[in-house]
Amino acid sequence: MAKVIAEMLVESVKMELPDVKTVRLQWPEGYDPGDFKTGQFITVYWPHKPKYKRAYSLSSCALDRGHYEVSVKRDGKMGTSIVDWVEAGDKLFVIPPTGRFLPVFDPPGRHLICVAGGSGVTPFRGFAREATARGLDTKITVLYTVRTTNDIIFAEEFRELEAKNPNFKFHVTCTRLAPEDPWAGRRGRITPEWVKSFVTDPAATVFYACGTNEMVAAVEHLVLHDLGLPKEQMKLEKWG
Amino acid sequence: MSSQVPADLRYAKSHEWVRLSGDVATVGITDHAQHELTDVVFVELPAVGRKVSAGEACAVVESVKTASDIYSPVSGEIIAVNKAVSDNPALVNSEPYAGGNFFQVKLSAPAEVDALLTPAAYSAQIGA
After folding, report:
1. Which value does ipTM take for this structure?
2. Cross-chain Cβ contact B41/A79 below 8 Å
3. Given pLDDT bands bounded at 50, 70 and 90, which one contains residue B2?
4. Residue in chain A nearest B42 by alpha carbon
5. Is domain A6-98 given the CATH code 2.40.30.10 in the classification?
């Protein structure tokens, strides 16, 4: 079968948070995903609403075969319907993966600094899964901003990946915790100084940002102006 | 990509534009906003007759990658909505300052328009 739009069965769902659900979409028999890559996004729509489409980054990776996974926040009509209603056995149409928000695994030895806000962390799950499964020496550092500890998506899975992969690090900063909250980690917004503290070899570092326009613009400014690096060392994904 | 900022409109910091005709303001979102949103796939408009205050969320625009509230830049009563844009949301991308407008407000506090951003100020905000 050629690489085409396909109707896919929802194989399973998992609530990651009260407002975030991971949906596993099963490839139909004979489906050819083509040369898709970790970090790309798929576009989905309901069989009865073909004009209403939403794009979601894959939270699975290119090594995961037989299905795609997307992790969807309750946002807009599609996000709300998926989080509140989708269950195993439902069907969605899927436009094949595309996009250039790709991890640089080749050449080896790069350091990928991945700045994420909220559900912007989903593509970095794919990055970490592939690098860990392949035993790559690529360093991946996820810097993740959330409001409170209740908003951390994939917390357990990222900790497991850290335990398996010495080159993967996951750092969280919380912006709206009550002062009396026992959280011992970092608090406050992502700052240029915090990001720069993880840069050891600027020439070998690739920066990624996925989140609000404001956060992505801040990372862009940091890379181009504060660090004076070329735009080729930066990949951005704005929510709009 | 540079965005169009027509000289005959006023702007809100939240990227809506206002075109004044007498005491009626037509409201839409800017070219810059539609670029940032990418392909618009859904628009939810307010009910005609609704009273809105300046800065109040009263419509929703959803693109392939995000959903955003649209805020009325001015206070007054919604006297008309653009059904063409809810039927064909892509108009927001193709004609942000014309067929892609959202609604019309009969102003209850016309001086609010003077407090909106000038084209030059809005251009400065978006770095155009």
Report:
1. 0.79
2. no
3. confident
4. A52
5. yes
> How do residues B54-94 score in pLDDT, each as one tens digit?
999 999 999 998 999 999 999 999 999 999 999 999 999 99
Determine whether the interchain pair A53/B64 forms a contact, defined as Cβ–Cβ distance below 8 Å: yes
Select the CATH number that applies to the domain covering A111-238 from these four: 3.40.50.80, 3.40.50.2000, 3.40.1170.60, 3.20.20.70.
3.40.50.80
Nearest Cα residue in chain A from B35 = A240
Q: Region A139-146: what's the mean pLDDT?
A: 98
Chain A residues with beta carbon closer than 8 angstroms to that of B37: 240
Nearest residue of chain A to residue B127 (CA atoms): A217
Residues 66-105 of B with CB under 8 A from A: 66-68
To the nearest whole angstrom, how far is the Cα of B60 from the nearest Cα of chain A? 9
- Nearest Cβ partner for A240 among B36, B42, B60: B36
Q: Where are the domains positioned within chain B?
A: 10-108
CA distance B104 to chain A (A): 24
Query: Given 3-state DSSP classes, what are the helix, strand and coil percentages for chain A, each rounded to the nearest 5?
Result: 25, 35, 40
Which residue among A54, A75, A77 places its CB closest to the CB of B64?
Answer: A54
Long-range contacts of the stretch A47-56 (C-beta < 8 A, 24+): A47/A7, A47/A91, A47/A92, A47/A93, A50/A93, A51/B41, A52/A77, A52/A78, A52/B41, A52/B42, A53/A95, A53/B39, A53/B41, A53/B64, A54/A78, A54/A79, A54/B41, A54/B62, A54/B64, A54/B65, A55/B64, A55/B65, A56/A122
Report the residue from B41, B60, B66 with minimal CB separation from A53.
B41
Chosen CATH of B10-108 out of 3.10.150.10, 2.40.50.100, 2.40.50.840, 2.170.150.40: 2.40.50.100
What residue spans define the domains of chain A? Answer: 6-98, 111-238
Tens digits of residue pLDDT in A57-94: 999 999 999 999 999 999 999 999 999 999 999 999 99
